[in-house]
Amino acid sequence: MERHQQNAMAVARFLEKHPKVAWVSYLGLPSHAYHETAKILLRGFGSTLAFGVQGGRGVDVIKALKLHSEEVSIHWYQPPDYIYIYNTRN
Q1: For the chain, how many structural domains are there in total?
Q2: Which of 34, 53, 60, 61 gives a 20 to 30 Å CA spacing to 19?
Q3: Is beta strand 82-87 parallel, antiparallel or unpaired with respect to 72-77?
């Protein structure tokens, strides 16, 4: 799980700096509203994150995304563009 968390943090940091990303929600980022609470209550921040794409281009991102596993669910809701990607494996 530690490696999953490291990867999620790297992706979140990358997305947070990307000019075409409107927002990133990941507990491990200091910018998250519940970051300080999570540091107290959790032993890690997990590997789930969400982000918004600027300019209504979320569908384009999904179409261009190459996934490693077919056991992943992707949901998007408009407006604004919310993309949720999570692994359905137990």
Answers
A1: 1
A2: 34
A3: antiparallel
Q: Mind listing the pLDDT tens digit for each residue in 25-76?
A: 899 999 998 889 988 998 888 888 888 888 877 778 777 877 654 444 555 5
Q: Which residue range forms the structural domain that includes residue 14?
A: 2-87
Residue 65: what residue type? L
CB 81 within 8 A of CB 58: yes
What angle is formed at CA 13 by the lines to CA 9 and CA 19, rounded to 5 degrees?
150
Q: Which of 76, 78, 54, 47 is nearest to 63 (CA)?
A: 76
- Write the pLDDT tens digit of every residue in 3-18: 888 999 999 999 999 9
Q: How far is CA 89 from CA 70, 75, 80, in A?
A: 10, 16, 28
The CATH number covering residue 7 comes to 3.90.1150.10
**Adjacent-strand bridge partners of 17:** none
